[in-house]
Amino acid sequence: MEETSFLNKIMLDLRATCRYYTGFPKDLGPSRVIHFTSEREFVQLLHQGHPVVVAFTIKCNLTKHLDKILEEAAAEFDPHVKFMRVSYRGLSLWELYMFLM
């Protein structure tokens, strides 16, 4: 019988205990993260009465890890908490400034 290596034991422990470990592929189904399109849509989302988590990101290779974590959290808390992503590439600086004010 083969003994598992120390690294494999650590990886197995991580997968068993870490809630948002994104190194192991998961089937999350369709995305539950809402993409920001207009201020009106955001206000309607707030009036639904659910807490809203807003992530301001620049769409690039460096934010892929954050995107995976958002997807996992949105899949877990979907009916009770809404997750929204505001991507800087789709907005002008003025629109982003007005959204924050």
From TrEMBL:
It comes from the Eukaryota. InterPro entries: Thioredoxin-like_sf. This is Thioredoxin superfamily protein. It comes from Sesamum radiatum (Black benniseed).
